[in-house]
Amino acid sequence: MTFAAFSVFVGLVVFAAISPGPAVLMSARTGLTEGMRTGLFLAMGIGAGAVVWASAAMFGLNLLFAAAPALLWALKLGGAAYLLWMAWTLWRHAAEPFVTADSRPVPRSGLSAFRLGLFTQLANPKPAVMFSAIFLGTVPPGTPLWVYAALLAIIFAAETLWNTAVARIFSLDRTRAGYISLKTVIDRSFGGLLALLGIKIAAT
Question: Which are the contacts of 150, defined by CB distance < 8 A and separation ≥ 6?
């Protein structure tokens, strides 16, 4: 793998990580409501989910989707249903007050946050297709396995670092103060965006 191809690979992976989607949206809300630490574990789960999709792309999942379109359709419907369920949960609880001793709900455990990040990323099967295109376009046949392992590590790092940064920005006191004052509106906006993303995943 040439340095030029490696540079293109890294650029495409970073672009994929920062593209708005369910993972970034969930990182922002987790940073707002549960703080930086929980956001870090969530981001690690998102990174792990990206590695799962990238690994599937390496083993030709895109070819399987092309041969059996019903499989991709089923995955898209399942992912969309998960996102719509999360959207409904946010909308339904939006009007509940954000009141505890320190104005922050008890954060979920690290494992629970990791699992939420993993499921949120896996709910969108489109990264498998995207990573297939990235690998086909930048990684030549016969590339050693250790290079593939390094590329997967880069994908994990890009997704984790970006979503951790998003969670950090939204965990700042000023950001949280604005959220507390507009909780119902913001939660329903988050829920609406998640619902739109779920519908988009199912429809495209």
Answer: none
Q: How many helices (H) and strands (E) does the chain have?
A: 9, 0
130: its two tokens: 């995207």
d(CA 45, CA 33): 18
84 contacts: CB under 8 Å, gap ≥ 6: 194, 195, 198, 199
Contact yes or no for 154/7 (Cβ under 8 A) = no
Q: How far is CA 91 from CA 5, 106, 150, 183, in A?
A: 44, 20, 40, 11
Q: What is the pLDDT of residues 76-122, one digit of tens each?
A: 777 677 777 777 877 776 666 655 434 445 567 889 999 999 998 88
Question: In whole angstroms, what is the distance from residue 117 CA to residue 185 CA?
Answer: 23
**C-alpha separations of 36 from 14, 53, 167, 184, 201 in Å:** 21, 26, 6, 22, 28
Residue pair 121/49 in contact (Cβ under 8 Å)? The answer is: yes
pLDDT, tens digit, for every residue of 48-88? 999 998 888 777 655 555 666 676 677 677 767 777 777 78
Give me the residue label for tokens 């990580």: 17
> Which position has the token pair 């989910």?
49
Q: Which of 106, 104, 114 is nearest to 183 (CA)?
A: 104
The pTM (predicted TM-score) of the whole model is: 0.74
